[in-house]
Structure of Dual-specificity RNA methyltransferase RlmN:
Amino acid sequence: MSSVAVVSSENLYEKQQSCATPVVQATAAKVNLLGMSRPELEKFFEDLGEKKFRAGQVMKWIHQYFVTDFAEMSNISGKLREKLEKICEIKAPEVVHRNYSKDGTRKWVFRVGDGEGSLVETVLIPAEDKTGARKTLCISSQVGCALDCSFCSTGKQGFQRDLTPAEIIGQLWMANYSYMEDVPVAERERTVTNVVMMGMGEPLLNYDAVLSSMQLMLDDFAYGMSKRRVTLSTSGVVPKIDQLAQDIDVALAISLHAPNDELRNELVPINKKYPLQQLIAACQRYLAKDGNESARRHVTIEYVMLDGVNDQPEHAQQLLKLLKNLPSKINLIPFNPFPHAPYGRSSRNRIIAFQKTLSDAGFVCTIRQTRGDDIDAACGQLVGQVADRTRRAEQWKKKVAQQQEILRTQG
Ligand code: SF4
């Protein structure tokens, strides 16, 4: 699910920094340990004739101390380190672009895959709340997206491919590492406090890779995050919501955006396959699965505010009716128009009036704040801008080479 942060893209090119990802360079034949779950890594070590507990040791080096060089893993014997060096690697996706905002927001564009590869983006948003300082990372699960929601910049790029577990968890690894790169290994700690699977792509359509990445997020030998601080956001792939309920206990968010089927069919076309009644019933089953002790006390409802489209008083009333039997918190997202977007952003007054209707009826309803204005763009836009810039640089290089060739033949 793509988030729709409210941002502008001013001076993008001046502010960008070129980046070199600190990874072990390795041949394609090496096994990348970064995305492996604990059971997979235990099996890997057993197959090497080693004890299972090595998996936990190596996981801590990778995910808690952000070490990519086996030589630094001091509690592993020299012989095993040498062996690992020969056959494995710890490789995060390459950072091709990063921007750090004055307000603490950080944004990365990663290249995934071989050669020119494809681009995905990740954004980190800091905030203060009653539990202290939060750093929430919005992670992508696919390159592009097949679901083509009409307000979404990522959807306009079409679907290219699913991300692997290493490419998904690599986004979290890199965000943590970005705070720790100058810190001595022994003093490093995990900085990202919350994760939302809400970047590019529909996470439930890349189910296995997303599930195993979220298991790593919760694993005490990896990121050890609280299950209430890991949220999966979906546009409503109903059968997969039921499967998720069986497989893992994390928080659920629904990218709803419309309070009736007619409008939702237009904004979120997967609604034609899984209409609202089915979706709400799936959310109720999800919450019923584990009771109050779990991360499933409520569902977060994401609702992008589109001027004159879904922001009228009757829409607020319809939303109240739709959610009356679903414990939910509602997050209103002011739309960030992208080039050729068919919608505009609702006025501040309209958003506040919408919020008041929902709050007066007893719902916790918040308006997403504008963050990272000096660096950001709506989800999916930055990738487009970086791709354009790369294309222009390539064209320029070609032109220069042609000129040089002409001069050489003339001279
Ligand atoms: S097209 Fe829809 S499901 Fe896909 S990333 Fe955009 S909002 Fe999410």
The pocket of iron/sulfur cluster is lined by residues 1-2, 145, 147-149, 152, 154-155, 200-202, 235, 255 (CB under 6 Å). Residues 245 and 286 are 5 Å apart (CA to CA).
